[in-house]
Amino acid sequence: MVDQFKKRMKKTMVWGLGTTLLVSCSGTAKQQSEEKSNPNVIIILADDIGYGDLSCNGEPTIHTPNVDRLAKSGVRFTDAHAVAATSTPSRYSLLTGQYAWRRNDTGIATGDAGMVIRPEQTTIADMFRQAGYATGAVGKWHLGLGDTQGSQDWNGFITPGPTDIGFDYSYIMAATGDRVPCVYVENQRVVNLDPNDPIAVSYKEPFPGEPLGKDHPEMLYVLKPSLNHGHDQAIVNGVSRIGYMKGGKQALWVDENIADSITRNAVKFIEEHHDRPFFLYFATNDIHVPRVPHPRFAGKSGMGPRGDAILEFDWSVGQIMTALEKQGIAENTLIILSSDNGPVVDDGYQDQAVELLGDHRPWGPFRGGKYSIFEAGTRVPFVVSWPAQVKQAVSDALVSQIDLFASLCKLIGQDIPAGSAPDSRDQLNTLLGKDRKGREYIVEQAGSLSVSNGEWKYIAPSNGAAYNRLTNTELGNHKEEQLYNLHKDIGEKENLALHHPEIVKQFQEILESERSR
Predict the structure, then answer these.
(1) Arithmetic mean of pLDDT, 305-314
(2) Cα 150 to Cα 113, 115, 232, 245, distances in angstroms
(3) Could you tell me the strand order of the sheet in which 278-283 lies?
(4) What is the average pLDDT across 359-371?
(5) 268 and 393 part of one domain
(6) Do 49 and 80 fall within a single domain?
(7) Residues 335 and 481 occupy one common structural domain
(8) Statement to judge: residues 158 and 84 lie in one domain
(9) Residue 37 confidence class, pLDDT cut points 50, 70, 90
């Protein structure tokens, strides 16, 4: 603990010195000119939205006009990937430039998890802050808060938190929509907390007298859980969640207002920092379960709450674009829109997502989905828009979110400190549409590891389950090696590992090299 404290203090002192130097030079005409030319950067990260969930990717069953408009102003990528097929490891990798599988504590975080990204680590937000940017994180977090699991002071200042990893401002959901505590945390304090009604959270034992979903289904007036998914514990606003919670009644969110709340705070951040370069990490709750879209979207998609939540996400994107236009900074703002992993239809609540899906294909032409090592687990929507610099295009370049760290550092002229972002590579020209090849290969994680060069994909052997019956998803795990030709077999149906041992060997060597670094 003492060593960690020293590292944090060292990081704070370095930042303080950097700030002093920036302030001392702020009066120079040269720096003012440079600051004005630096683009604002916004990462819009959807939750569980699949490649086929957006109309810009060719899906005719849904209409997402704001995302379409964004895609028409920039580069839409067809072979872009999250690093992992679930939330926490995917977000960890994006923000740190390090593969989550290099650590054994980056799995799906509980609501009372300690900070997965440690304060002594350098994040992409640190780099923007060092460059003089205002930095903000708004929306779903799911990367832990506090030092260790269960040690958070939910009724006071929660530390460490986003400020310790580079974010000047934060307005976040502590974990995710289906996990307690169901409160917003602004600058590391719970919003609207009544000190006379303190919060208590547990992921071990229920609190006496607090009703649980499994015992009181009559209290679940908004959504009921699917069988055996585990969403049958603490009841918050008519929905039972994972984990146990008591108190904090005044601070509890209302699910149908989540998108409005986090979008409003993202817009507020833009308005308050429009006159200087800013970096905004805007992570929406849509379309993660429990899906309870605002009434103005309810019934509009024809596909139930899941489809309506997609429309709500599109609205959030539109609000961000409108805010930029109102402030006159849309031209010089770089927006990267993507998703943390692939889609899932039934993920724990009875919201008729399966029954009302119809002809809609959230996974597009790919196999698998969220939790899966097959393509639909990590091949995600990906759009880069920067009207001042990027021309409209569709790119088949191989892209990974792991490279956002190094690429954006290149954009703002920052050198990555030694040891930081070890797996991130500069792919700025690819993101801006100037290079149509992209990465030589990508590494993906979901139970097993896979390597793809865009044409061939290798999946390493695994003893994990081949199928998730709860979500009706093929996970892709197999005790034998798998090799697919994605140019000829985008659905990964024919395993060619025995027919091309030389290609298998090449990918084995790549994985061995990556694991040994």
Answers:
(1) 98
(2) 7, 11, 20, 12
(3) 189-190, 184-186, 169-173, 134-140, 278-283, 40-46, 333-339, 382-385, 74-81, 393-400
(4) 98
(5) yes
(6) yes
(7) no
(8) yes
(9) confident
Omega before residue 160 within 30° of 0, cis: yes
Alpha-carbon distance 486 to 82, whole Å?
A: 17
Same domain, 330 and 466: no
Distance between CA atoms of 197 and 207, rounded to whole angstroms?
Answer: 15
Rounded Cα–Cα distance for residues 16 and 19 (Å):
5
Query: Which of these, 286, 287, 289, 313, lies nearest to 56 by C-alpha position?
Result: 313
pLDDT in tens, 197-249: 999 999 999 999 999 999 999 999 999 999 778 899 999 999 999 999 999 99
Residue ranges in 175-281 assigned as alpha helix (H): 258-272
Residue 203 lies in a domain: no
- Statement to judge: residues 362 and 479 lie in one domain: no
Residue type, 179: R
Q: Which amino acid is at 227?
A: L
| pLDDT tens digit sequence for 135-173 | 999 999 999 999 999 999 999 999 999 999 999 999 999
Q: Which of 402, 431, 460 is the last residue of a domain?
A: 431
pTM summary value: 0.93
**Rounded CA Rg of the chain:** 22
- Let me know whether 130 and 268 are in one domain: yes
Considering the domain architecture, whether residues 405 and 501 belong to the same structural domain is answered as no
